[in-house]
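Lab notebook: predicted structure, single chain.

Context: the supervisor wants predicted structures on file for every construct in the current expression panel, including those that have not yet been purified. This is the next one on the list. No modifications to the sequence; it matches the entry in the shared construct table.
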Amino acid sequence: MSMAFVTTFILTRPDLGKLFVGLKPQIPEGGWLTVIALVGTTVVPYNLFLHASAVKSKWHHSDDLLIVRRDTVISIGVGGLISLAIVSTAAAAFFGQQVAIQSAADMSVQLQPLLGQWATICMGLGLFAAGISSAITAPLAAAYALSGMLGWPTDAKNIKFKMIWMVVLFSGLLLALSGYKPITIIWFAQIANGLLLPLLAAFLLYVMNKSELLGQYKNTWLHNVLGFVVILLTVLLSAKSLYFAFS
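Prediction complete. Output recorded below exactly as produced.
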């Protein structure tokens, strides 16, 4: 799916000038909550728990920091490139076309320059794969977070850890099988993620400055400035979103 979106992006030959102009934020009326939901779904707070726990089980020494940084840069870089390709191909397919998107099948139009009549099938398979991967990782992140809060072992072989994982997984499965379309619930969940993000980021920034924990590897002044900017932006977005929601 990543290659499909990136290749379609190249085939559509987007106007790079307009692409860069589009980087200037323009939020439509009533769109602030959706903006914070998009932030919450892109930088998902529970992924901090999942990534930290996964890293702890894989790398154990300060000598691994170079590999960790490379892993992070590649992951975020590739993810950003794919997101750019998805948004750009969607803009090329739908902007100014007065197209009403009622289902995932309607979204497949953006892949037709590459896949033609196979676009719908490819989009369906891609969304199925995305759902399967999310069904594994989201409950896993919840198990790490809740086990840590309760002081339980964060070992995937532990019965308590497995119990949390399964409860979260089957709760989602039962909701999906009920036939209810939880779009509004998902939307509000992502808004909650966006609102929680600055709190977790602030805590993370605090921990990254503790010399007794990190020694020479604690944050530099540049890291702190960049971290503060990120927190400030997310706080402003959250505050403005809540203001418009309640006003």
